[in-house]
Amino acid sequence: MSPETTAAQAAHRPPKGPACRSLSDLDPGVRARLCHHSEHPVPTRLRDLGFVPDTTLMVLRQAPLGDPLEVEIRGYRVCLRRADIAALCVVPVAQ
Ligand SMILES: [Zn+2]
């Protein structure tokens, strides 16, 4: 399977793969793309903030105790509690 085929399939109907991880587990500074697995619907409040599938985002930093997390999405920054974003599935993307 060529890389092009893999990317096209991922964009069309992304399977939950080995690269998937919880947004709350994403390391700061790593850019990632939101998945849309049916078992993890994005809460309405987060959708309203721009957390929709295929959106690229990045965890900027964590508070000293690891909560909340500052996330950059769509050019602005939001602070979110770890528990609120633990259900969001993301895949790191190339820098
Ligand atoms: Zn995923």
Q: How far from one another are the termini?
A: 23 Å
Mind telling me the CATH class?
Mainly Beta
Which band does the percent of strand residues land in? 25-35%
CATH topology description: SH3 type barrels
Under the CATH scheme, the architecture is Roll
Cofactors, ions, other ligands = zinc ion
How many domains make up the 3D coordinates?
Answer: 1
Radius of gyration: 13 Å
How confident is the prediction overall: mean pLDDT? 83
In CATH, the homologous superfamily goes by the name Ferrous iron transport protein A (FeoA)
Describe this structure in words.
The protein contains three helices and six strands. The chain is an alpha+beta fold. It has one domain (16-92): SH3 type barrels (Roll), CATH 2.30.30. A six-stranded antiparallel sheet has the order 1-6-2-3-4-5. Strand 4 (69-73) and strand 5 (76-80) form a beta hairpin. The longest helix has 10 residues, at 3-12. The chain is globular and about 35 Å long. The model is unreliable at 8-12 (pLDDT under 50). The protein binds zinc ion (ZN). Zinc ion binds next to strand 6.
Quick summary:
This protein has 95 residues and is α+β, with helices and mostly antiparallel strands.
